[in-house]
Specification:
Arc Repressor Mutant, subunit A, 2 domains, 9 helices, mainly alpha, DNA-binding, homodimer, Tetracycline Repressor, domain 2, elongated
Amino acid sequence: MSGLRERKKVKTREAILREAFRLFREHGYSATTVEQIAEAAEVSRATFFRYFPTKEDLVTLDRFLPLVEALKAQPPGAAPVSALRGAFRTAFAGLSAEEITAGHAREVFAATVPELVAANLRKSPGLIREVAEILADRTGCPPDDSRIQNVIGASFGVVAMAWLRWARDSAVDGPAEIDRSLAHLESGLTL
Amino acid sequence: MSGLRERKKVKTREAILREAFRLFREHGYSATTVEQIAEAAEVSRATFFRYFPTKEDLVTLDRFLPLVEALKAQPPGAAPVSALRGAFRTAFAGLSAEEITAGHAREVFAATVPELVAANLRKSPGLIREVAEILADRTGCPPDDSRIQNVIGASFGVVAMAWLRWARDSAVDGPAEIDRSLAHLESGLTL
DNA sequence: TATTTTATGAGACTACAGTATCAGTTGCGT
DNA sequence: ACGCAACTGATACTGTAGTCTCATAAAATA
Protein backbone atom coordinates (compact mmCIF):
# COMPACT_ATOMS: atom_id res chain seq x y z
CA MET A 1 0.00 0.00 0.00
CA SER A 2 2.05 2.95 -1.12
CA GLY A 3 0.36 5.72 0.77
CA LEU A 4 1.28 9.32 0.42
CA ARG A 5 3.80 8.99 3.20
CA GLU A 6 5.74 6.30 1.44
CA ARG A 7 5.83 8.22 -1.80
CA LYS A 8 6.99 11.34 -0.04
CA LYS A 9 9.79 9.44 1.61
CA VAL A 10 10.93 8.09 -1.71
CA LYS A 11 10.88 11.55 -3.20
CA THR A 12 12.83 13.00 -0.30
CA ARG A 13 15.37 10.26 -0.53
CA GLU A 14 15.78 10.81 -4.24
CA ALA A 15 16.06 14.55 -3.80
CA ILE A 16 18.81 14.15 -1.26
CA LEU A 17 20.73 11.75 -3.47
CA ARG A 18 20.27 13.87 -6.56
CA GLU A 19 21.33 17.13 -4.95
CA ALA A 20 24.18 15.45 -3.14
CA PHE A 21 25.65 14.08 -6.32
CA ARG A 22 25.16 17.32 -8.13
CA LEU A 23 27.10 19.12 -5.40
CA PHE A 24 29.71 16.41 -5.32
CA ARG A 25 30.24 16.81 -9.03
CA GLU A 26 30.50 20.56 -8.73
CA HIS A 27 32.60 20.91 -5.62
CA GLY A 28 33.92 17.49 -4.77
CA TYR A 29 32.88 15.09 -2.06
CA SER A 30 34.64 16.36 1.02
CA ALA A 31 34.17 20.01 0.09
CA THR A 32 30.43 19.45 0.16
CA THR A 33 28.92 19.62 3.62
CA VAL A 34 25.86 17.83 4.81
CA GLU A 35 24.35 21.22 5.51
CA GLN A 36 24.69 22.21 1.86
CA ILE A 37 23.15 18.96 0.72
CA ALA A 38 20.26 19.34 3.12
CA GLU A 39 19.67 22.90 2.02
CA ALA A 40 19.74 21.98 -1.65
CA ALA A 41 17.35 19.11 -1.06
CA GLU A 42 15.14 21.39 1.02
CA VAL A 43 15.24 19.32 4.16
CA SER A 44 16.80 19.95 7.51
CA ARG A 45 20.15 18.55 8.52
CA ALA A 46 18.38 16.36 11.03
CA THR A 47 16.24 14.89 8.29
CA PHE A 48 19.26 14.21 6.17
CA PHE A 49 20.70 12.06 8.93
CA ARG A 50 17.40 10.28 9.29
CA TYR A 51 17.67 9.14 5.69
CA PHE A 52 21.41 8.55 5.61
CA PRO A 53 23.05 7.80 8.95
CA THR A 54 26.37 9.00 7.62
CA LYS A 55 27.49 11.07 4.69
CA GLU A 56 29.36 8.09 3.35
CA ASP A 57 26.17 6.12 3.13
CA LEU A 58 25.18 8.29 0.19
CA VAL A 59 27.79 6.58 -1.86
CA THR A 60 28.53 3.23 -0.34
CA LEU A 61 25.65 0.97 -0.90
CA ASP A 62 25.79 -2.73 -1.26
CA ARG A 63 26.57 -2.98 -4.91
CA PHE A 64 28.08 -6.41 -4.99
CA LEU A 65 25.15 -8.57 -4.06
CA PRO A 66 24.30 -9.25 -7.72
CA LEU A 67 27.90 -10.22 -8.31
CA VAL A 68 27.87 -12.71 -5.48
CA GLU A 69 24.62 -14.19 -6.69
CA ALA A 70 25.93 -14.44 -10.21
CA LEU A 71 29.09 -16.10 -8.99
CA LYS A 72 27.12 -18.74 -7.18
CA ALA A 73 25.24 -19.45 -10.40
CA GLN A 74 28.31 -20.00 -12.55
CA PRO A 75 28.75 -23.41 -14.18
CA PRO A 76 30.73 -25.64 -11.85
CA GLY A 77 33.38 -26.65 -14.34
CA ALA A 78 34.86 -23.22 -14.93
CA ALA A 79 38.20 -22.18 -13.45
CA PRO A 80 38.01 -19.58 -10.68
CA VAL A 81 39.02 -16.62 -12.81
CA SER A 82 36.61 -17.68 -15.53
CA ALA A 83 33.86 -18.01 -13.01
CA LEU A 84 34.54 -14.51 -11.72
CA ARG A 85 34.60 -13.22 -15.24
CA GLY A 86 31.30 -14.86 -15.98
CA ALA A 87 29.85 -13.47 -12.77
CA PHE A 88 30.79 -9.92 -13.72
CA ARG A 89 29.29 -10.52 -17.15
CA THR A 90 25.95 -11.67 -15.87
CA ALA A 91 25.89 -9.08 -13.09
CA PHE A 92 26.25 -6.32 -15.64
CA ALA A 93 23.85 -8.01 -18.02
CA GLY A 94 21.19 -7.73 -15.35
CA LEU A 95 21.41 -3.95 -15.47
CA SER A 96 19.84 -1.66 -18.00
CA ALA A 97 22.00 0.83 -19.86
CA GLU A 98 20.42 3.59 -17.80
CA GLU A 99 21.23 1.85 -14.58
CA ILE A 100 24.81 1.43 -15.67
CA THR A 101 25.30 5.06 -16.64
CA ALA A 102 23.43 6.20 -13.55
CA GLY A 103 25.61 4.01 -11.43
CA HIS A 104 28.69 5.29 -13.15
CA ALA A 105 28.53 8.70 -11.48
CA ARG A 106 28.34 7.05 -8.14
CA GLU A 107 31.18 4.75 -8.97
CA VAL A 108 33.37 7.62 -9.97
CA PHE A 109 33.22 8.86 -6.42
CA ALA A 110 33.37 5.47 -4.83
CA ALA A 111 36.51 4.68 -6.79
CA THR A 112 38.13 8.09 -6.66
CA VAL A 113 37.55 9.80 -3.34
CA PRO A 114 39.82 8.28 -0.71
CA GLU A 115 37.29 8.56 2.10
CA LEU A 116 34.83 6.61 0.04
CA VAL A 117 37.36 4.06 -0.99
CA ALA A 118 37.91 3.64 2.71
CA ALA A 119 34.23 3.27 3.37
CA ASN A 120 33.93 0.63 0.70
CA LEU A 121 37.03 -1.09 1.94
CA ARG A 122 35.45 -1.28 5.33
CA LYS A 123 32.85 -3.53 3.83
CA SER A 124 35.23 -5.46 1.60
CA PRO A 125 36.48 -8.12 4.01
CA GLY A 126 33.00 -9.54 4.05
CA LEU A 127 32.84 -9.57 0.28
CA ILE A 128 36.25 -11.16 -0.03
CA ARG A 129 35.39 -13.84 2.47
CA GLU A 130 32.13 -14.55 0.73
CA VAL A 131 33.77 -14.83 -2.66
CA ALA A 132 36.53 -16.94 -1.17
CA GLU A 133 34.00 -19.35 0.24
CA ILE A 134 32.18 -19.70 -3.03
CA LEU A 135 35.39 -20.30 -4.94
CA ALA A 136 36.59 -22.69 -2.28
CA ASP A 137 33.40 -24.67 -2.66
CA ARG A 138 33.86 -24.83 -6.38
CA THR A 139 37.45 -25.99 -6.25
CA GLY A 140 37.58 -28.03 -3.08
CA CYS A 141 40.30 -25.86 -1.56
CA PRO A 142 39.81 -24.39 1.89
CA PRO A 143 38.67 -20.74 1.71
CA ASP A 144 41.83 -19.45 3.35
CA ASP A 145 44.04 -21.22 0.84
CA SER A 146 46.49 -18.67 -0.44
CA ARG A 147 45.92 -19.79 -4.02
CA ILE A 148 42.26 -18.87 -3.74
CA GLN A 149 43.21 -15.56 -2.24
CA ASN A 150 45.69 -14.96 -5.01
CA VAL A 151 42.98 -15.52 -7.56
CA ILE A 152 40.73 -13.07 -5.77
CA GLY A 153 43.48 -10.53 -5.31
CA ALA A 154 44.58 -10.69 -8.92
CA SER A 155 41.03 -10.60 -10.25
CA PHE A 156 39.90 -7.70 -8.14
CA GLY A 157 43.20 -6.02 -8.91
CA VAL A 158 42.64 -6.02 -12.66
CA VAL A 159 38.98 -5.16 -12.16
CA ALA A 160 39.97 -2.22 -9.98
CA MET A 161 42.31 -0.91 -12.64
CA ALA A 162 39.64 -1.24 -15.31
CA TRP A 163 37.17 0.39 -12.96
CA LEU A 164 39.54 3.30 -12.50
CA ARG A 165 39.87 3.75 -16.24
CA TRP A 166 36.11 3.77 -16.42
CA ALA A 167 35.87 6.28 -13.58
CA ARG A 168 38.41 8.55 -15.21
CA ASP A 169 36.77 8.45 -18.60
CA SER A 170 33.07 7.80 -18.89
CA ALA A 171 33.48 7.05 -22.59
CA VAL A 172 35.15 3.81 -21.62
CA ASP A 173 32.81 0.84 -21.75
CA GLY A 174 33.24 -0.28 -18.17
CA PRO A 175 31.71 -3.74 -18.32
CA ALA A 176 33.56 -4.55 -21.54
CA GLU A 177 36.78 -3.24 -20.12
CA ILE A 178 36.37 -5.38 -17.04
CA ASP A 179 35.62 -8.39 -19.17
CA ARG A 180 38.68 -7.85 -21.31
CA SER A 181 40.89 -7.42 -18.28
CA LEU A 182 39.68 -10.63 -16.71
CA ALA A 183 40.12 -12.38 -20.02
CA HIS A 184 43.67 -11.13 -20.11
CA LEU A 185 44.26 -12.44 -16.61
CA GLU A 186 42.59 -15.70 -17.56
CA SER A 187 45.04 -16.20 -20.39
CA GLY A 188 48.03 -15.63 -18.16
CA LEU A 189 48.61 -11.89 -18.55
CA THR A 190 50.44 -12.47 -21.79
CA LEU A 191 51.92 -9.54 -23.57
CA MET B 1 76.39 17.93 14.31
CA SER B 2 73.78 16.22 16.44
CA GLY B 3 73.33 18.80 19.15
CA LEU B 4 71.10 18.29 22.09
CA ARG B 5 68.27 19.90 20.22
CA GLU B 6 68.43 17.38 17.42
CA ARG B 7 68.53 14.49 19.79
CA LYS B 8 65.62 15.85 21.74
CA LYS B 9 63.61 16.17 18.61
CA VAL B 10 64.35 12.61 17.64
CA LYS B 11 63.37 11.44 21.09
CA THR B 12 60.15 13.39 21.00
CA ARG B 13 59.31 12.06 17.59
CA GLU B 14 60.01 8.53 18.71
CA ALA B 15 57.98 8.98 21.85
CA ILE B 16 55.01 10.19 19.87
CA LEU B 17 55.25 7.31 17.45
CA ARG B 18 55.76 4.75 20.18
CA GLU B 19 52.88 5.93 22.33
CA ALA B 20 50.66 6.38 19.33
CA PHE B 21 51.15 2.82 18.20
CA ARG B 22 50.76 1.48 21.69
CA LEU B 23 47.43 3.26 21.97
CA PHE B 24 46.44 2.17 18.48
CA ARG B 25 47.13 -1.41 19.41
CA GLU B 26 45.17 -1.10 22.61
CA HIS B 27 42.18 0.89 21.47
CA GLY B 28 42.33 1.02 17.69
CA TYR B 29 43.29 3.83 15.38
CA SER B 30 40.20 5.96 15.19
CA ALA B 31 39.29 5.44 18.83
CA THR B 32 42.60 7.00 19.79
CA THR B 33 42.55 10.78 19.82
CA VAL B 34 45.46 13.06 19.17
CA GLU B 35 44.98 14.41 22.66
CA GLN B 36 45.53 10.99 24.16
CA ILE B 37 48.63 10.45 22.09
CA ALA B 38 50.02 13.83 23.07
CA GLU B 39 49.33 13.19 26.71
CA ALA B 40 50.94 9.75 26.62
CA ALA B 41 53.97 11.14 24.84
CA GLU B 42 54.10 14.00 27.35
CA VAL B 43 53.85 16.74 24.80
CA SER B 44 51.12 19.23 24.06
CA ARG B 45 48.62 18.76 21.31
CA ALA B 46 50.19 21.69 19.50
CA THR B 47 53.56 19.99 19.57
CA PHE B 48 52.06 16.82 18.21
CA PHE B 49 50.84 18.70 15.17
CA ARG B 50 54.26 20.27 14.75
CA TYR B 51 55.75 16.83 14.39
CA PHE B 52 52.94 15.24 12.42
CA PRO B 53 50.77 17.61 10.42
CA THR B 54 47.94 15.11 10.47
CA LYS B 55 47.15 12.04 12.48
CA GLU B 56 47.39 9.95 9.35
CA ASP B 57 50.97 10.98 8.88
CA LEU B 58 51.87 8.78 11.81
CA VAL B 59 51.19 5.79 9.67
CA THR B 60 51.50 6.76 6.04
CA LEU B 61 55.06 7.28 5.08
CA ASP B 62 56.63 6.76 1.73
CA ARG B 63 57.43 3.12 1.94
CA PHE B 64 57.61 2.24 -1.71
CA LEU B 65 60.63 4.18 -2.83
CA PRO B 66 62.92 1.17 -2.37
CA LEU B 67 60.51 -0.90 -4.42
CA VAL B 68 60.56 1.53 -7.30
CA GLU B 69 64.34 1.69 -7.24
CA ALA B 70 64.58 -2.07 -7.16
CA LEU B 71 62.19 -2.35 -10.05
CA LYS B 72 64.30 -0.06 -12.15
CA ALA B 73 67.29 -2.26 -11.44
CA GLN B 74 65.68 -5.50 -12.56
CA PRO B 75 67.30 -7.36 -15.46
CA PRO B 76 65.72 -6.19 -18.69
CA GLY B 77 64.80 -9.60 -20.02
CA ALA B 78 62.34 -10.55 -17.29
CA ALA B 79 58.60 -10.51 -17.84
CA PRO B 80 56.70 -7.77 -16.01
CA VAL B 81 55.39 -9.94 -13.20
CA SER B 82 58.82 -11.50 -12.74
CA ALA B 83 60.37 -8.06 -12.61
CA LEU B 84 57.92 -6.97 -9.94
CA ARG B 85 58.57 -10.14 -8.03
CA GLY B 86 62.30 -9.54 -8.20
CA ALA B 87 61.78 -5.95 -7.11
CA PHE B 88 59.88 -6.99 -4.01
CA ARG B 89 62.60 -9.53 -3.27
CA THR B 90 65.43 -7.03 -3.43
CA ALA B 91 63.44 -4.34 -1.66
CA PHE B 92 62.90 -6.67 1.28
CA ALA B 93 66.48 -7.93 1.10
CA GLY B 94 67.63 -4.39 1.73
CA LEU B 95 65.93 -4.38 5.11
CA SER B 96 67.22 -5.93 8.29
CA ALA B 97 65.04 -8.37 10.18
CA GLU B 98 64.53 -5.72 12.84
CA GLU B 99 63.41 -3.21 10.29
CA ILE B 100 60.95 -5.68 8.89
CA THR B 101 59.42 -6.60 12.23
CA ALA B 102 59.44 -2.97 13.32
CA GLY B 103 57.71 -2.00 10.14
CA HIS B 104 55.21 -4.80 10.56
CA ALA B 105 53.29 -3.08 13.34
CA ARG B 106 52.89 -0.03 11.18
CA GLU B 107 51.85 -2.12 8.23
CA VAL B 108 49.22 -3.83 10.26
CA PHE B 109 47.48 -0.52 10.62
CA ALA B 110 48.25 0.72 7.16
CA ALA B 111 46.73 -2.43 5.71
CA THR B 112 43.88 -2.90 8.14
CA VAL B 113 42.36 0.42 9.12
CA PRO B 114 40.25 1.71 6.26
CA GLU B 115 41.11 5.36 6.85
CA LEU B 116 44.76 4.51 6.54
CA VAL B 117 44.30 2.37 3.51
CA ALA B 118 42.59 5.36 2.02
CA ALA B 119 45.39 7.68 3.02
CA ASN B 120 47.87 5.37 1.39
CA LEU B 121 45.66 5.06 -1.61
CA ARG B 122 45.74 8.80 -1.93
CA LYS B 123 49.40 8.44 -2.72
CA SER B 124 49.00 5.37 -4.86
CA PRO B 125 48.15 6.91 -8.23
CA GLY B 126 51.66 8.29 -8.31
CA LEU B 127 53.11 4.91 -7.46
CA ILE B 128 50.99 3.14 -10.02
CA ARG B 129 51.93 5.60 -12.71
CA GLU B 130 55.57 5.32 -11.86
CA VAL B 131 55.49 1.55 -11.93
CA ALA B 132 53.50 1.66 -15.15
CA GLU B 133 56.13 3.83 -16.77
CA ILE B 134 58.94 1.58 -15.72
CA LEU B 135 57.16 -1.51 -16.99
CA ALA B 136 56.20 0.26 -20.18
CA ASP B 137 59.82 1.12 -20.76
CA ARG B 138 60.82 -2.47 -20.27
CA THR B 139 58.22 -3.88 -22.60
CA GLY B 140 57.83 -1.21 -25.22
CA CYS B 141 54.12 -0.79 -24.51
CA PRO B 142 52.72 2.65 -23.73
CA PRO B 143 52.25 3.17 -19.98
CA ASP B 144 48.49 3.44 -20.26
CA ASP B 145 48.23 0.16 -22.12
CA SER B 146 45.57 -1.85 -20.36
CA ARG B 147 47.76 -4.94 -20.42
CA ILE B 148 50.38 -3.13 -18.38
CA GLN B 149 47.68 -1.97 -16.00
CA ASN B 150 46.33 -5.46 -15.72
CA VAL B 151 49.77 -6.70 -14.75
CA ILE B 152 50.02 -4.03 -12.10
CA GLY B 153 46.51 -4.59 -10.86
CA ALA B 154 46.93 -8.33 -10.62
CA SER B 155 50.34 -8.07 -9.00
CA PHE B 156 49.36 -5.53 -6.41
CA GLY B 157 46.17 -7.50 -5.87
CA VAL B 158 47.96 -10.68 -4.88
CA VAL B 159 50.51 -8.68 -2.90
CA ALA B 160 47.71 -6.93 -1.04
CA MET B 161 46.15 -10.23 -0.10
CA ALA B 162 49.48 -11.61 1.10
CA TRP B 163 50.07 -8.38 2.97
CA LEU B 164 46.72 -8.79 4.70
CA ARG B 165 47.59 -12.31 5.77
CA TRP B 166 50.79 -10.91 7.17
CA ALA B 167 48.99 -8.13 8.95
CA ARG B 168 46.50 -10.54 10.46
CA ASP B 169 49.14 -12.96 11.67
CA SER B 170 52.60 -11.71 12.44
CA ALA B 171 53.88 -15.29 12.40
CA VAL B 172 53.46 -15.24 8.64
CA ASP B 173 56.68 -14.55 6.80
CA GLY B 174 55.49 -11.53 4.87
CA PRO B 175 58.23 -11.23 2.28
CA ALA B 176 58.16 -14.96 1.58
CA GLU B 177 54.39 -14.92 1.33
CA ILE B 178 54.52 -12.07 -1.15
CA ASP B 179 57.15 -13.85 -3.17
CA ARG B 180 55.12 -17.04 -3.27
CA SER B 181 52.00 -15.16 -4.31
CA LEU B 182 53.77 -13.42 -7.16
CA ALA B 183 55.30 -16.72 -8.20
CA HIS B 184 51.83 -18.18 -8.28
CA LEU B 185 50.62 -15.32 -10.43
CA GLU B 186 53.69 -15.69 -12.62
CA SER B 187 52.83 -19.28 -13.30
CA GLY B 188 49.29 -18.46 -14.31
CA LEU B 189 47.39 -18.85 -11.02
CA THR B 190 47.25 -22.60 -11.48
CA LEU B 191 45.44 -24.64 -8.93
C1' DT C 1 -14.27 14.80 12.48
C1' DA C 2 -11.37 13.36 16.33
C1' DT C 3 -7.41 10.78 17.64
C1' DT C 4 -3.19 8.61 17.08
C1' DT C 5 1.03 7.85 14.77
C1' DT C 6 4.91 9.42 12.21
C1' DA C 7 7.87 12.65 9.80
C1' DT C 8 9.89 16.95 10.17
C1' DG C 9 12.36 21.37 11.60
C1' DA C 10 14.77 24.06 14.85
C1' DG C 11 18.37 24.41 17.45
C1' DA C 12 21.41 23.22 21.10
C1' DC C 13 25.09 19.98 22.05
C1' DT C 14 29.31 16.83 21.72
C1' DA C 15 33.55 15.21 19.81
C1' DC C 16 37.44 15.63 17.30
C1' DA C 17 40.83 17.38 13.78
C1' DG C 18 43.35 20.99 12.59
C1' DT C 19 44.76 26.29 13.02
C1' DA C 20 46.46 30.49 15.16
C1' DT C 21 48.49 33.33 18.69
C1' DC C 22 51.43 34.47 22.09
C1' DA C 23 54.21 34.07 25.91
C1' DG C 24 57.73 31.36 28.23
C1' DT C 25 61.70 28.30 28.04
C1' DT C 26 65.81 26.09 26.51
C1' DG C 27 69.68 25.05 23.78
C1' DC C 28 73.21 27.50 20.84
C1' DG C 29 76.74 30.56 19.06
C1' DT C 30 79.44 34.49 20.40
C1' DA D 1 77.29 35.41 30.41
C1' DC D 2 74.25 37.16 26.93
C1' DG D 3 71.14 37.52 23.26
C1' DC D 4 69.09 35.13 19.45
C1' DA D 5 66.61 31.53 17.36
C1' DA D 6 64.07 27.59 17.86
C1' DC D 7 61.02 24.73 20.50
C1' DT D 8 57.17 24.34 23.49
C1' DG D 9 52.66 24.80 26.13
C1' DA D 10 48.46 27.01 26.99
C1' DT D 11 44.50 28.31 25.18
C1' DA D 12 41.10 29.86 22.36
C1' DC D 13 39.05 29.20 17.88
C1' DT D 14 37.01 27.06 13.51
C1' DG D 15 34.70 23.62 10.84
C1' DT D 16 32.13 19.61 10.33
C1' DA D 17 30.00 15.08 11.41
C1' DG D 18 26.79 13.15 14.08
C1' DT D 19 23.33 13.12 18.40
C1' DC D 20 19.41 14.55 21.08
C1' DT D 21 15.16 16.85 22.47
C1' DC D 22 11.01 18.79 21.79
C1' DA D 23 7.40 21.08 19.54
C1' DT D 24 4.79 21.15 15.28
C1' DA D 25 2.68 19.56 11.18
C1' DA D 26 0.80 16.23 8.41
C1' DA D 27 -0.77 11.70 7.27
C1' DA D 28 -3.22 7.52 8.71
C1' DT D 29 -7.06 5.54 11.18
C1' DA D 30 -11.36 5.11 13.38
